[in-house]
Amino acid sequence: MRNIWVIAQKEYKHYFISPVAYVIAFAILLILGILFYASIMAMSAQMQQQTAPGIDIVLAPLTTLLLFTAPGITMRSLAEEQKGGTLELLLTAPVRDYEVVVGKWLGAMLFIITLLAITLFYPLVLNQIVRPGIDQGSMIAAYLGILLMSGAVLAIGVMMSSFFSNQIAAFFATLGALLVLWMISYPVQAMGNTGGDILRYLDMSEHYYATFMRGIVELKDVIYFVSVIVLTLFIGSVSVEARRWR
Amino acid sequence: MIRVVDLVKDYGSRRAIDTLSFNAEKGEVLGFLGPNGAGKTTTMRILSGFMPPTSGTVTIGGYDVVENSLEVRRIVGYLPETVPLYNEMTVFEYLKYMSDLRHLKNGKARVNETLEMVGLQDRANGYIGKLSKGMRQRVGLAQALLHQPEVLILDEPTIGLDPVQVVHFRELIRSIGKDRTVLLSTHILPEVQQVCDRVLIINKGKIVAEDAPQQLQSRLMGAQRVAVRVRGETGTLLTKIGNLPGVLNVTPGADDTFEFETHPAQDVRAEVARLIVNSGIDLLEFHPVSMSLEEIFLQLTRDEPADSDVLPVVEPAQG
Question: Distance between CA atoms of A199 and A188, rounded to whole angstroms?
Answer without folding.
Answer: 7
